[in-house]
Amino acid sequence: MSTPNQVRIVEVGARDGLQNEKTIVPAAAKIELIDRLSDTGLCTIEATSFVSPKWIPQLADAAEVYAGIMKKTGVAYPVLVPNEQGYERARAVGATEIAVFTAASEAFNRKNINASIDESIARFAPVIERAKADNVRVRGYVSTVLGCPYQGDVPLADVVRVAKRLHDLGCYEISLGDTIGIGTPGKARAMLKAVAQHVPIDALAVHFHDTRGQALANILACIEEGVSVVDAAVSGTGGCPYARGASGNVASEDVVYMLEGLGMDTGVDLEALVQAGRWLATLLGRANGSKVGLAGVRSTTEETQ
Ligand code: HMG
Ligand code: MG
User: Fold this and answer.
1) Which domain does 158 fall in, by range?
2) Of the residues 85, 102, 171, 259, which has the fewest C-beta atoms closer than 10 A?
3) Atom 49 of ligand 1 has which residue's CA nearest to it?
4) pLDDT digit string (tens) for 240-256?
5) Ligand 1 atom nearest to 101, measured from its CA
6) pLDDT tens-digit readout, 94-126
7) Catalytic pick from 148, 171, 222, 240?
């Protein structure tokens, strides 16, 4: 499998990054975050979730946020949708790309969306049918691909089966999520190879949380296996409220820094991304979760010259 020259970053900070924040971030600040990200050259920015506001209060303002963001030409703004109710809410404000989400672990899926894997996929089928008719693109997420906070080990066969089902239903891309950041590079590579035997590698993305500091190493292993789409969150924010111990996503700044250092093209203006990440860390009143955001893109000597 050849290493790609170009890697697309799917920026999930405004959704995965914020969904776990206890203090409600005002809609205007979410809009400003997404608008800042739109000016960095990112071409996929997940904007929000049309899930139940009782389950994710932070994103109860999904309609206001989606309606308020600048929709830059050439940038996709997917939104999470768990069911037909979510689809209708998303379409009411003009969403043109959605993401459905399920898991490889029954126990996690039950906690996260109150459904078995089969039930969740049965809910997606009519959503995907409507999306096809409406010319709406559908991305699919599979969570807990390297381990589950409730079930423990997750058999590779379960990951493969769920990813293939979402692809067969019509998802153009399947994002493989290490929800609790439990994986290490050898396991990440083996998981990707197993899925890639049943879903084309060009239709796969990887989504690592950095809970145990393995995310960049895992991403590199998967890129060496040929994956060319990487999910990441500016400033390393994030976590799933229904996955104990799921800390931040890998920071987008750190992923871009690594990939550009390897000579790969991400199309992202790293300085602008770093500025957006610093702005977000200040807004949330917490330490920046990006090492590059903390240190700067260049060495201190260069920066002070
Ligand atoms: P439920 O309680 O089983 O749903 O939740 P229900 O159909 O029985 O409805 C209950 C209430 O929710 C009703 O309202 C519905 O109208 C309402 P009530 O009559 O009680 O007033 N409702 C909705 N409201 C707004 N929008 C909707 C919607 N659907 C129902 N779409 C449900 C089932 C799926 C709705 C719920 O479990 C839910 O919203 N879960 C979302 C959880 C979530 O967002 N988790 C985080 C995202 S996944 C993630 O982070 C992982 C990922 O990053 C990858 C990785 O890291 O692995 C993607
Ligand atoms: Mg996630």
Assistant:
1) 8-304
2) 85
3) 240
4) 777 776 679 999 999 99
5) 58
6) 999 999 999 999 999 999 999 999 999 999 999
7) 240
Question: Which tokens go with 234?
Answer: 């500016």
Q: How confident is the model at residue 302 (pLDDT cuts 50, 70, 90)?
A: low
Domain at 35, CATH number: 3.20.20.70
pTM over 0.85: yes
* Count of structural domains within the chain: 1
In a domain, 76, yes or no: yes
Residue 148 in domain: yes
Structure tokens at 201: 């590698």
Around ion ligand 2, which residues have CB less than 5 A away?
16
Answer yes or no: are the C-beta atoms of 7 and 259 closer than 8 Å: yes
Point out which residues pair with 177 in neighbouring strands: 207
- 38 and 76 in contact (C-beta within 8 Å)? no
Cα of 239 vs centre of ligand 2, distance in Å, is 6
Dist. CA 28–CA 161, nearest whole Å: 40
Measured torsion, CA atoms of residues 273, 253, 289, 66, in degrees rounded to the nearest 10: 50
Q: What's the average model confidence in pLDDT over 41-46?
A: 98
Residue 36, domain member (yes or no) = yes
Give the Å distance between the CA of 305 and the centre of ligand 2. 39
Would residue 43 show up in a list of annotated catalytic residues for this protein? Answer: no
Secondary structure element (H or E) that encloses residue 8, with its range: strand 8-11
Report the atom number in ligand 1 closest to the C-alpha of 99: 58
